[in-house]
From TrEMBL:
NCBIfam families: PRK09834.1-3 (NF007341)
Annotated protein name in UniProt: DNA-binding transcriptional regulator
Domain called HTH iclR-type: residue spans: 18-81
SUPFAM superfamilies for the chain: GAF domain-like (SSF55781), Winged helix' DNA-binding domain (SSF46785)
Tagged with keyword Aminoacyl-tRNA synthetase: no
Keywords (A to Z) from UniProt: DNA-binding, Transcription, Transcription regulation
Cross-referenced PROSITE patterns: HTH_ICLR, ICLR_ED
GO biological process: negative regulation of DNA-templated transcription
One Pfam assignment: HTH_IclR
InterPro entries recorded: GAF-like_dom_sf (IPR029016), HTH_MetabolicPath_Reg (IPR050707), Tscrpt_reg_IclR_C (IPR014757), Tscrpt_reg_IclR_N (IPR005471), WH-like_DNA-bd_sf (IPR036388), WH_DNA-bd_sf (IPR036390)
SMART domains: HTH_ICLR (SM00346)
Length: 279
């Protein structure tokens, strides 16, 4: 049976295929097809039909070549900026994660409490990277991929208040339709609440919550927006236990380091050379 149109016919080609290269491309393509361009070695093994040991060996090669990186937060693998030379599988959210990850490690050393990098996911924020796994004060571990309510978490509020007016209205429409649950729909339909929320966060320069998220009443957080190319692209938070710190103490201890790290992430995003080094 002839090969695919445009591809060499392996029956007549004078050159033997390079099995290792074929398998490496299979892993890259599988990773590209996975949601957000990330997956575990086991998932990639199941998707490609390759043994997990083979997949891990191929992934290590791809890491060495700069096309893949491993997140120590959840032991998943994801595409890096380098794959833009090969495919469209890389997106800005992963670009931010790649750049922010090492800087978040520095933030952890400064504040000890865990932090999350989040980007918008429709009617919520999704955690792209986290230091929960490494913080001695962490109370959660598996956080990557978790969705945070837009209007009742520091991460969501920091993004919502500083994003463009049109995008903010689109988010509100999603929430009003019940996409984020009844609690978020009620808040989105409260025009006075929304106005006060946006005004307060913009005046403060950061978002905060302290027991406002019904699912996490014991948790407090502060967050700042991350901007690139005249747009807000995500937010960076520090999460703490409410019984351990007052809100005033949390603001005093965390906001300045957050703003410093966010500023450095933004500088790196604006510099192609810095972005390449981050991969």
């Amino acid at each position: 049976m002839p090969g695919k149109p445009g591809a060499p016919d392996r029956r007549t080609s004078p050159y033997a295929s390079v099995r290792g290269l074929t398998r490496g491309l299979d892993v890259l393509k599988a990773l590209n097809r996975m949601e957000s361009g990330r997956g575990t070695a086991q998932q990639l093994s199941e998707l490609t039909g390759l043994h997990r040991t083979t997949v891990r060996r191929l992934l290590e090669t791809l890491i060495a070549e700069g096309f893949v990186r491993r997140s120590e937060s959840d032991d998943s693998y994801r595409l890096t900026l380098q794959v833009r030379a090969l495919s469209e599988g890389f997106n800005d959210d992963e670009w931010i994660s790649t750049i922010a990850a090492p800087l978040m490690g520095e933030l952890l050393q400064r504040v000890l409490w865990p932090s999350d990098l989040t980007t918008p996911d429709g009617d919520a924020m999704i955690i792209r990277e986290t230091t929960h796994r490494f913080s001695p004060l962490s109370f959660h571990r598996a956080m990557v991929g978790r969705r945070l309510p837009m209007l009742s978490t520091a991460a969501g509020r920091a993004y919502f208040a500083f994003c463009g007016e049109g995008e903010r209205e689109d988010i509100l429409n999603l929430l009003r339709s019940g996409g984020g649950g009844d609690e978020q729909a009620a808040l989105a339909n409260n025009a006075a609440y929304v106005r006060k929320l946006v005004a307060r966060v913009r005046e403060d320069g950061f978002g905060s919550n302290r027991g406002d998220w019904l699912e996490q009443r014991k948790i407090g957080a502060v967050a700042v927006p991350i901007r690139h190319a005249d747009r807000v692209r995500g937010s960076l938070n520090v999460v703490y236990l409410s019984r351990a710190l007052s809100e005033q103490e949390a603001v005093k201890r965390f906001v300045a380091p957050l703003q410093d790290i966010a500023s450095r992430v933004q500088e790196a995003m604006a510099s192609p050379a810095a972005a390449r080094r981050a991969t």
